Amino acid sequence: MFDCVRYAQKANSNTHILRLLRSMGVVTDAVSLGEIERALRAGYVPGTSAHEIVFTADIIDKTTLARVLELGIPVNCGSPDMVRQVGRAGRGHPVWLRINPGFGHGHNRKTNTGGPSSKHGIWHEEFEDSLGLVDEYGLSLIGLHMHIGSGVDYDHLHRVCESMLDAVRRANRPLQAISAGGGLSVPYRSGEPEIDIAAYHAAWNTTRLEAERITGSRMRLELEPGRYLVGNAGLLVAEIRAVKKVADKHFVLVDAGFNDLARPIIYGSHHEICFVTQAGSPVTGPTFPIAVAGPLCEAGDVFTQHDGGFVEFRDLPLPEVGDIAILRDTGAYGASMSSNYNTRPLAPEVMFDAGALTVIRKRQSVEQLLDLEADGMVLSAAR
C-alpha cells in the first residue's frame, strides 16, 4: 500500500503507543519539541535516511529549531517565515513544504486544515516564493505535503490529488516524496461509513505515478494518519456519582469531565455511551432522555452535546450511583488533549494488549501538581 505510514502522534502520544507502532514499521510526525522527545524516548532514531521523525508545525521556536538541527530532523515548513528561519540557522537542512491549496475539508470548521480561513500551510500563491527561499539557503527539499482532510468525500480527495500534481509541476524539480497528509475518518456512530483504504490508496498512487512522470524521479508516497490508527481503540471509563431529574429529563453525572475528553465541548463530537454495573453487566430497563455530564464547574461540561453547545438527551436506560459509564472511541484526542482544569489530576491510561492489562500512564496526584508551584523563583528584582 503506502510506502510510508507516518503516525501523527498528536492523536495519542503515549510512549507505549509509539513503541507499539514503531514495532510495526510505522514512523512518526511530531508537532512540538515535547513530541520530538517522546519519539526519542520511544526508540525512534533521527537523522537517518529513513527520516523516522519529521517535525511539522505552524511555527518553530528557537529551542526547537536548535534541537531539530542537532538531530537532523526534517522540518515540514508551513510558512515562508519558517523556511527562512530554518535556512538561516542551518543551510542544507532537509525540509518539506506544506501547501495550502486554497480549499479544505473537515468534519467541523475547527478541523478544516485548508482554505482562506485556515492558519495551516503555505498559501498557494506564496509557493514559488518559498521555493526561492529553499534555493537561496541551499535547503534540501524532500517533498511536498498537503494535509487538508478528505474523510469519505472522494470527490474532495481527487481535488486534493489534482492540487498536489499542480504543485509538483510548479516545483519543477526532482522530489523524493509526496505526502497525502491525514484526515482519514473513523466511524463514531453505528452505521457511519468507513473509509475505503483501497480506493484512497489508488487515487494517491495514481497521483504519485504521474508526479514521477513529471519530475523524472522516483518518489515515496507517505500517509499521515493519527485518529485513524487509534480512534476506535480507546474507551473512557467513569463512575456514576449522581443521577438527577431536571424537568422531564435526567442528568447522569460521572467522575470524568472535559478535562479528560475535550472533543464534545470543542467540536460537539459524538461518542457512543453505555452503562454497566460494577459486575460488568449492561444496565437494562426502560429508557429515558438522558444527558451525560461531568464534575467540572462549567455548564459546558457535558459529553452529550451538539456543535454549538446544545445539550443532547439520548434515550438510555437509567443507571444508579456506582454504575459505570463507558464512552467509546476515545483513543484519539482523548488523553492527548486532557488537562488539569479545576486542579484535577490526569487520569491513568491502561493498555489492553495480547490479553493483558498494563498501566501505561500512572494516575497523577494533586501533590505532583502542587509541587510545580512549590518554590517561587524571582525573575528580576524591583528597582
Count of helical stretches: 10
Radius of gyration: 23 Å
User: What is the overall silhouette?
Assistant: globular
Overall residue-averaged pLDDT value: 94
Give me the count of strands: 19
**Strand proportion:** 15-25%
Low-confidence segments, ≥5 residues, pLDDT <50? 107-112
Roughly how many Å apart are the termini? 65 Å
Order of helices and strands: EHEHEHEHEEHEHEHEHEEHEEEEEEEEH
What does this protein structure show overall?
This protein has 383 residues and is α/β, with parallel strands linked by helices. Helices cover 26% and strands 24% of the residues. It has 10 helices and 19 strands. The chain has helices at 15-23, 33-41, 62-71, 80-89, 127-136, 154-171, 197-215, 227-230, 263-267, 366-371, and strands spanning 4-8, 27-30, 53-56, 75-77, 94-100, 122-123, 140-145, 177-179, 220-223, 235-246, 249-254, 273-276, 287-293, 305-306, 310-311, 314-317, 324-328, 349-353, 356-361. An 8-stranded parallel β-barrel has the order 1-2-3-4-5-7-8-9, surrounded by 6 helices. Helix 4 links the parallel strand 4 (75-77) and strand 5 (94-100). Helix 4 (80-89) packs parallel to helix 5 and helix 6 runs parallel beside helix 7 (197-215). The termini are far apart. 39% of the residues are buried. Mean pLDDT is 94; it is low at 107-112.
How is this fold's topology laid out?
Elements: E1 4-8, H1 15-23, E2 27-30, H2 33-41, E3 53-56, H3 62-71, E4 75-77, H4 80-89, E5 94-100, E6 122-123, H5 127-136, E7 140-145, H6 154-171, E8 177-179, H7 197-215, E9 220-223, H8 227-230, E10 235-246, E11 249-254, H9 263-267, E12 273-276, E13 287-293, E14 305-306, E15 310-311, E16 314-317, E17 324-328, E18 349-353, E19 356-361, H10 366-371
Parallel strand pairs: 1-2, 1-9, 2-3, 3-4, 4-5, 5-6, 5-7, 7-8, 8-9, 11-13
Antiparallel strand pairs: 10-11, 10-17, 12-17, 13-16, 14-15, 18-19
